[in-house]
Amino acid sequence: MRNAAETRIKLLETAMELLTTRSYHDIGVSDVCKHAGVTKGAFYHHFDSKAALFAASARQHWEKGKDELRSIFSPDISPIEQLNRYIDLVCSKQEKYAIPGESEVCVCPIFTAGGQVGPEDIEIQDCSRELAEEQIKYLASMVRGLKGEGMLSEDGDVTTLARMIFQYVHGLLTYGKVFNDLDTVRSDLREGICRILNLQCKFRDVSSSDAA
Fold it and tell me: Which of its termini does the chain have fewer beta carbons within 10 Å around, N or C?
């Protein structure tokens, strides 16, 4: 029998598992309880609502992945290597979370949920915005480094470029999911980011192994 802490963790993990395969509106409290193996009473002991659960689950999921982002965007790593590692991360997550025979490409469940809800689920929207802004900050640190080393052909605004990379990546993943086409995601990912950045041509084909 689970204790209270274990039950909470199970609910958080189940919420994210369901959100990777279904839309936010298609998941009810009953679904979460059934898959987690808990009662509704146990659910409402920990969370006031479905929105509260999914916001907490999203934040937990983000915190678990922050070490990976810190490693990629570490100031000890060159900016061009950060870019290569970020691109590798996006591609590797597709291989990790793809559903064989069903979907080759997965989108970010947190950001996607934020676009699926209306004003009545402001908690989900706020969480999605918050975590998107956090990721954009990491990207901005990379863009600032590339700019500082003179690798960009134009003097663009760092925050704007970082936000555009975030927008492009998530838009590309949505395209890949709709067409179930991971090959296009792989081929267009680097090209699109390099174009947004106006990265000088001599740096565009640098692989992670070459840059290390």
Answer: N
